[in-house]
Design brief:
43% of the residues lie in helices and 17% in strands. By secondary structure, it is of the alpha/beta class. The strands form two sheets. Strands 4-5-6-7-8 form a five-stranded parallel sheet. Strands 1-2-3 form a three-stranded parallel sheet. α2 links the parallel β2 and β3. α8 packs across α9. The two termini are 19 Å apart. It binds nickel (II) ion. The site of nickel (II) ion (NI) has 5 residues, from loops. Nickel (II) ion binds next to loops.
Amino acid sequence: MLFDTHTHLNVKHFEKDEAEVVQRAIDAGVTQMGVIGFDNETIVKALELSETYEGIHPVIGWHPTEAGSYTDAVEENLIDLIKKHKIAMMGEMGLDYHWMEDPKETQQEVFRRQIRVAKKMKLPITVHNRESTEDVYRILKEEHIEDVGGIMHSFNLDSEWMERFLDLNMHISFSGVLTFKKALEVKESAKLVPLDRVLIETDAPYLSPQPYRGKRNEPSYVRYVAEELAMLRDMSFEEIAKITTDNANQLFGFTKE
Ligand code: NI
């Protein structure tokens, strides 16, 4: 059993063969996925997929590259959908200083607003961080994210930063980046991450793991992330699969402690 905590089966890359992609995931043992909506279109599609297939959990929020279009109406719609569809997690949200589609101030404001919604709804969040680590950390800390926790998605930082995010009650999710030969800091973090706070994901269609680097990623490939993590921790694939799946189920609120 594997749980891909962050995937975008809801984007156009999967329009033509979504059923086959889901079947390959099932064949690879991927029984659950968090399908991440990040704007109106992808949110609608995430909800639709969750009604079509077993084990698909829609996660909804507003991506930092869409920050300029976040309005009161968007926020009210998110709240309505969370209630109506019993959404388990909010996101993705955060900051993206790579693409810088909107000014930092706008991104930060939209990030804070969504954190406040998540806290009101008592939901964990999934966080996008690209070239914005200092500000992401500061905002999570100032907004007291520890009350609900969440996921540092596609974690690609060193173990010092990892410790700081762990202190804020965040989980650490590794993507295909973990399989890249040169990702030494990320591998080091994976060696040290507490086993009750580690998750795996694909971020499909992006960030394909070895041996598919550069090609379209898909949820079935999350097993390569699990294999790499198992190797780094000197554990079996089955143990890593169980640990990461249990952690995800707990964070999404599907199991009681
Ligand atoms: Ni994503």
